[in-house]
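ok, trying the design again with the full structure, not the truncated one.
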């Protein structure tokens, strides 16, 4: 069991001790894709959905979700989130939310970026569900991470 970093010798879950790790600049970018009806796409590109500015709400939700990651993901370290960029694009089939998180800390921000993108996507669902009950989060994925021991990784 000791080969798994988040398990102790007896197999119990534990938070990894990062005390001895170097503080380095790190970043991560994640994306969530929400599929919505053509009617919702038209509303988002025009007059807006009945609940209000869905894209602004999703942007703020993504930032808030990023900052709350260690409260939601049990073994994530509370770290200093030093920057969050949220890009939201309305496409012909839905909404793409891309979140980039930056820090200078002892552990990465992949989970923060993934959580931010996920919470932004959930906010879109909440804002459009009155118009489109079939709205769905199609995928949430890490696109890139930089810094730390493993360096840079980019989704192929």
């Amino acid at each position: 069991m000791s080969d798994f970093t988040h398990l102790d010798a007896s197999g119990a879950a534990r938070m990894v001790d990062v005390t001895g790790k170097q503080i380095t600049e790190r970043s991560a970018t994640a994306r969530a894709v929400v599929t919505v009806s053509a009617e919702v796409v038209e509303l988002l590109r025009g007059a807006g959905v009945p609940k209000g500015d869905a894209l602004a709400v999703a942007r703020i939700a993504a930032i808030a979700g990023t900052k709350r990651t260690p409260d939601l993901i049990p073994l994530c370290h509370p770290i200093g989130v030093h920057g969050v960029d949220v890009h939201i694009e309305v496409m012909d089939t839905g909404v793409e939310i891309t979140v980039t998180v930056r820090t200078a800390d002892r552990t990465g921000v992949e989970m923060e970026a993934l959580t931010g993108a996920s919470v932004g996507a959930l906010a879109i669902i909440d804002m459009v569900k009155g118009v489109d009950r079939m709205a769905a989060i199609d995928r949430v994925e890490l696109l890139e991470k930089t810094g730390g021991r493993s360096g840079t990784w980019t989704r192929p």
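Keeping the full-length input from now on. The helical segments are 38-45, 54-67, 69-72, 110-128.
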